[in-house]
Design goal:
The complex is a heterodimer of chains A (899) and B (231). Chain A has 30 helices and 25 strands. Chain A is an alpha/beta fold and 899 residues long. Chain A has six domains: 11-245, P-loop containing nucleotide triphosphate hydrolases (Rossmann fold, 3-Layer(aba) Sandwich); 257-390, HUPs (Rossmann fold, 3-Layer(aba) Sandwich), CATH 3.40.50; 399-482, no CATH class; 524-652, Beta-Lactamase (2-Layer Sandwich), CATH 3.30.450; 678-734, no CATH class; 736-885, Heat Shock Protein 90. Chain A has a six-stranded parallel beta sheet, with helices on both faces. Chain A has a five-stranded parallel beta sheet with strand order 11-10-9-12-13, with helices on both faces. Chain A starts with 10 loop residues before the first helix and ends in a 14-residue tail after the last strand. Chain B is an alpha/beta fold and 231 residues long. Chain B has two domains: 6-123, Rossmann fold, CATH 3.40.50.2300; 132-227, Winged helix-like DNA-binding domain superfamily/Winged helix DNA-binding domain (Arc Repressor Mutant, subunit A), CATH 1.10.10.10. In chain B, helix 2 packs parallel to helix 3 (63-73). In chain B, strands 2-1-3-4-5 form a five-stranded parallel beta sheet, sandwiched between helices. In chain B, strands 6-7-8-9 form a four-stranded antiparallel beta sheet, covered by helices on one side. Classes of the chains: A alpha/beta (899), B alpha/beta (231). The A-B interface holds A 715, 719, 723, 726, 730, 741-747, 749-751, 753-754, 758, 765, 767, 769, 771, 780-781, 784, 806, 890-891, 893-894, 896-899 and B 84-85, 87, 105, 107, 155-159, 161, 193-195, 197-201, 204-205, 210-214, 218-219, 221-222.
Chain lengths: 899, 231
């Protein structure tokens, strides 16, 4: 796992380090040489530091150093005292381990202990070397040690996922957090690989194997990034510890906030460093802002440079912000006002003055429109590309220039034909048409070329003396100037118009896409369908593949298997998605964070909540990555999905609350039923039984029979009520598990009739079942329960001895079972509410039911996918109809002959 | 019915025992009571009762286990008493060798009828199979494989007859689905319970005046079938 907030120091670590510093008198100091991977030169750097100590008159002692047979490293051991190793025998192999006791006895000022993550041989005092180091520190000995980022416990998972190599030797983070000094030993991956190839890291076959497995550029990049991040976080902590130590003199919360405009040019790095220095001296915080415009077509190299500049800024403690807008200056100023920025730092434009007359540089506009903000303009480092320039389109293509040439040539040809019949000013018009046409489809540079060529061609071809550059009369110079200015103005206007058309079209397309997604999402419920719809739209908008990752309850993201894409992305992408989820920031290809991944990951997040999902997109153009405007659209789509997800989540919570309220109502009804409804029959049973007991002899035989009858009937009533309550709680509790089988209708009705038989007491029951009727597909017990309830209701709510009709018929592919009585029928408007829980009609109240019977029936029939309805008969009384699916055909019986 | 039938009641609830004692002693039966499964097992071994009423929900041993252990040493008729909604337990008990079952609350008339049927089956010597079953208008002549109603002989398919013959063999007692399939086809195959259902449906169409209110061929939902014997 990655710490959730990269830039916030762990308060415990802070406290520990403050405490550590206060008692540092007794405790040794720990200096860690920290690297991205083996072979960056940590041991070398440590030995160099030791040599420097030696020169300064201190006496460093080598506790244990692994030179891996590297000659340069070996050489640095000269002049240093090396403690003998403690040898242990382990399964016949002699191992040389660091001799902790020897070191404590020797008690040097400084000791060098290589490879902090090392696991000691069995039988050593401590299992891990970092525990040895802790003991040394406690003994007041300063320790120099080395460790690689992959050994950090908190990063262990992600390292495994990135490299596919499980690192077993880990060091708890707080060991490093409590280090007094961390020295980052950094080596770019290319140089690293070079060293590897030259055999400076591993020797012989080991080298080849290492290059094949662990040491791939992708791995090295990722590990390096992790290492840089860790150290950057650590730098932040250092600053805060320092500030805390300064007490009240400077408060951390600052009035000054600086913004620096960062682009892909190398001079931006200088800007960044200058801003860092300025911010530090002012005690302010600072933001590195990159603005990309729709026109800025950055190539991969430029994007990498931009990412590098941003990373530099981040490592120096800046907040990184990327924005897109059509106007660089406007975007910077709006953002700066939003964030109460006090100072803006920008690069000095290096354009010739005349260009600025035509089109003022963003810096000029910044200065003019910055209001009460200060603007600092800083010189770039001999690099001609300025901030504004670098954001301009770099059209590498030659086509527009060829088009410009063609337009001028065509104009010349037309003018040539017209020359005998027209005046010279008319021919100028022809050239203007050609130049304007160029502006309609070619780039700015090409249009400028067309303007210059047009003026030149006009001069050479038509201005006397013809076919020379010379002019007859100086007033032609004025003509040329006017022609040039007019052409430039017209073409510049045309270009701007064209850009606006492109922008308008782009924004229209974006609106259409967003609108379509929002319309689609409006109809959807459930996280998975929303995510799927969003992925569809994202894939459609960028003509690419889109994936999603959803968090599980433990906060780990899992690939969403409902993605429309055919193949799930690699485990590495999963790790990136995890980072995005944990940090709620975009990452992956083209974002400047974890850039080596193939996909671009964006969090789906509403407000400040933690993300609800991570969407990963394959950039449509692998070489350029996601363009800023595409990124913006992707963010908008994700924001929309986030909104839908949030609405869905709220709705889900509301329905949960509703279900809970329902359960609560059920519970209280159970209580009131038990307390009241059940007590009534119990009271009569009690009464009857007691009178029988007390005056058995004097009661007449008929009365006695009467009392006994009452006891039996009332018991039956209680039993029925309790069954219904139990059924309802069971139905609500674990839902229904149907065991659907084809059932003969006569059997279903027969079983129910048999069960109510004792209560029919001689009533006529007319059963009409066509002998050819289809079987129904139903759960045997549950459907019998439904019919039983309907029959009991019919008995309860109709006069004694009135007949009951049970009718079955087929209708389409349904079978309808009806129970009709000759009672008072339903109250008007009762047809639907009668199936609600705890509904009791007037008749029901008298009959003393709980009001659950029909609700249970409805729940069961609904679960069958059937329908239950109630209606009044023409001849009086009510009919309840249950419609169920007919079983598909009859069960095939084994063939048999009639006897 | 023979007098002084000795019945062992294994039931932990006193009111039920009291009510069973009252009604069964009124019918001249002699009752022994056990309140736990352990006690029931030892009484069954020492007393050798003629019939056992076994409650499935006992405090110490699972009713089903009591049943299995009883069956290890005794062929005495056992009628299961169980609560409503525990159909699975009933089937398991019947398949484990119980003779019949009753669902609480049950009425006394029903209990007496079941006891009579169970005792009758137990009294029949094993080497003398049932040859003829008569109930109401229905006559099943197992010797000549013929079935008659008041109107005359009814023609059945071989499978229909086989199923009816199994019901007749256990006349009055419940026959579980599994038992039926084993008796008719010699094995239990998935899907065959549907065949039994269809044959039962056809038998009712042929033998019952009102198939939905059967007089002879009773369905015990989820559990099985019973040939009702009118007394």
């Amino acid at each position: 796992m990655i710490p959730t907030s990269e830039n916030r120091p762990n308060p415990d670590a802070l406290l520990a380090r403050l405490a550590g510093e206060s008692r540092s008198a007794g405790r040794g100091r720990m200096k860690v040489f920290f690297g991205a991977n083996a072979g960056v030169g940590k041991t070398y750097a440590m030995l160099e530091a030791a040599q420097a100590l030696l020169r300064a008159g201190r006496v460093p002692v080598v506790g244990v150093v692994e030179t891996h047979g590297r000659k340069d490293t070996q050489g640095l051991l000269d002049g240093l005292e090396v403690l003998p190793r403690r040898t242990t025998d382990h399964r016949g192999i002699t191992l040389g381990e660091f001799d902790l006791d020897g070191a404590l006895t020797r008690s040097p000022q400084v000791i060098l202990v290589d490879e902090l993550a090392h696991t000691n041989a069995p039988g050593s005092r401590h299992e891990k070397r970092w525990q040895d180091v802790a003991e040394l520190l406690n003994a007041g000995i300063d320790v120099y040690t080395t460790v690689n980022v992959q050994h950090l416990e908190s990063l262990n998972d992600i390292v495994t996922e990135i490299t596919g190599v499980k690192v077993r030797e880990t060091v708890p983070d707080q060991v490093l957090e409590q280090a007094d000094e961390i020295v980052l030993v950094d080596l770019p991956p290319q140089e690293m690989l070079q060293r590897l190839r030259e055999g400076k890291v591993y020797t012989g076959t080991q080298a080849a194997r290492a290059a094949d497995g662990f040491f791939k550029t992708g791995n090295l990049l990722a590990l390096r990034e992790l290492a840089l991040r860790f150290v950057a976080k650590r730098v932040n902590v250092d600053v805060q510890v320092y500030r805390n130590a300064q007490g009240d003199r400077k408060t951390w919360a600052t009035q000054e906030r600086l913004i620096v405009a960062v682009g892909p040019s190398p001079s931006s790095a200088k800007l960044v460093r200058a801003t860092k220095r300025l911010a530090a001296s002012l005690g302010g915080e600072w933001i590195a802002l990159s603005v990309t415009t729709p026109q800025s077509q950055m190539n991969r190299a430029a994007r990498e440079r931009l990412a590098e500049n941003q990373r530099l800024a981040q490592s120096l403690g800046a907040e990184i912000v990327s924005l897109s807008g059509s106007d660089v200056a406007e975007t910077i100023l709006t953002y700066a006002r939003d964030r109460n920025v006090t100072k803006i730092i920008a690069g000095k434009p290096v354009l010739p003055r005349w260009r600025e007359l035509l089109r003022p540089s963003p810096v000029d506009r910044l200065i003019r429109e910055s209001g009460d903000m200060d603007v600092y303009v800083i010189r770039g480092e001999g690099d001609s590309a300025s901030q504004s320039r670098s954001l301009r389109p770099s059209s590498a293509s030659k086509k527009p220039y060829l088009a410009a040439l063609a337009c001028v040539a065509l104009s010349s040809a037309v003018a040539w034909v017209m020359y005998p019949f027209f005046e010279l000013p008319d021919l100028i018009m022809i050239y203007l048409v050609g130049i304007t046409t160029t502006a309609l489809f070619a780039s700015r540079g090409a249009t400028l070329l067309a303007t210059a060529l047009g003026v030149m061609a006009f001069n050479v071809l038509f201005v006397p003396p013809r076919f020379t550059v010379d002019v007859e009369s100086p007033h032609y110079l004025l003509t040329f100037a006017v022609m040039f200015v007019v052409a430039t103005v017209i073409s510049s206007l045309t270009l701007r118009l064209r850009q606006q058309v492109v922008l308008a079209r782009e924004s229209e397309r974006r609106t259409v896409i967003l609108h379509r997604l929002s319309r689609r999402l409006a109809a959807l419920r459930g996280t998975e369908s929303i995510i799927r719809a969003a992925l569809d739209e994202v894939a459609l908008a960028f003509q690419t593949q889109a994936f999603a990752f959803l968090p599980d309850p433990s906060g780990k993201v899992v690939y969403f298997s409902g993605c429309p894409a055919a193949l799930p992305p690699s485990a590495k992408e999963n790790a990136v998605a995890q980072w995005v989820y944990s940090n709620a920031l975009p990452a992956g290809a083209g974002t400047g964070t974890l850039d080596s991944s193939t996909l671009t990951h964006v969090p789906i997040r509403a407000g400040e909540d933690s993300p609800m999902a991570v969407v990963a997109v394959m950039p449509p153009n692998q070489s350029t990555g996601m363009q800023p405007d595409q990124m913006e659209l992707l963010n908008s789509l994700c924001a929309q999905a986030a909104l839908s997800l949030q609405v869905d989540r709220l709705e889900h919570m509301r329905s949960l609350a509703q279900a809970e309220a329902e359960t609560e109502r059920l519970r209280s009804s159970v209580l009131s039923t038990v307390s009241h409804d059940v007590r009534t029959p119990i009271a009569s049973i009690q009464g009857c039984a007691e009178s029988l007991l007390e005056s058995e002899q004097v009661i007449a035989p008929e009365t006695r029979r009467e009392l006994l009858r009452t006891i039996a009937d009332e018991s039956h009533r209680i039993s029925g009520m309790i069954s219904n309550l139990l059924d309802m709680t069971r139905l609500e509790g674990d839902g229904l598990h149907l065991n659907l089988v084809p059932l003969p209708v006569d059997e279903v009705i027969g079983a129910a009739l048999a069960a109510v038989e004792p209560r029919l007491s001689g009533r006529a029951v007319q059963v009409q079942i066509p002998s050819t009727i289809a079987f129904v597909s139903a759960d045997e017990i549950l459907i019998q329960h439904v019919l039983l309830n309907l029959l009991e209701n019919a008995i309860k709510y109709s006069p004694d001895r009135s007949p009951i009709e049970v009718i079955a018929r087929e209708e389409g592919d349904s079978v309808i079972l009806e129970v009709a009585d000759h009672g008072p029928g339903l109250e008007p408007g009762e047809e639907l509410v009668i199936f609600e829980k705890f509904h009791r009609g007037k008749a029901g109240q008298k009959a003393g039911g709980v009001g659950l019977g029909l609700a249970i029936c409805k729940a069961i029939v609904d679960a069958h996918g059937g329908q239950i309805t109630a209606r009044n008969n023409d001849h009086g009384g009510a009919t309840f109809a249950v419609s169920l699916r007919a079983a598909d055909g009859l069960v095939d019986l084994p063939r048999e002959e009639e006897p | 019915m023979s007098q002084h039938v000795r019945i062992l009641v294994i039931e932990d609830e006193a009111p039920i025992r009291r009510f069973l004692r009252a009604s069964l002693e009124a019918q001249q039966h002699r009752l022994t009571e056990a309140t736990t499964g352990q006690e029931g097992l030892s009484l069954a071994a020492t007393d050798a009762p003629d019939l056992i009423l076994l409650d499935l929900g006992l405090p110490d041993i699972e009713g089903l286990d009591v049943l299995r252990r009883l069956r290890e040493f005794s062929a005495v008729p056992i009628i299961i008493l169980s609560a409503r909604g525990k159909e699975r337990d009933k089937i398991d008990a019947l398949d484990a060798g119980a003779d019949d079952y009753l669902t609480k609350p049950f009425n006394v008339g029903e209990l007496s009828a079941r006891i009579r049927v169970a005792l009758r089956h137990a009294a029949r010597p094993a080497d003398k199979p049932t040859l003829r079953v008569e109930t109401g208008d229905l006559v099943i002549d197992l010797e000549n494989r013929q079935v008659f109603l008041a109107e005359g002989e009814v023609r059945l398919t071989p499978n229909e007859y086989r199923i009816l013959a199994v019901l007749a063999k256990y006349a009055g007692k419940v026959v579980t689905q599994n038992q039926m399939m084993t008796e008719v086809w010699g094995s239990i195959k998935p899907g065959q319970e549907h065949h039994v259902r269809v044959y039962m449906h056809q038998l009712r169409q042929k033998l019952e005046a009102e198939p939905a209110r059967p007089r002879y061929l009773i369905t015990e939902p989820w559990v099985g079938y019973r040939l009702k014997v009118e007394e």
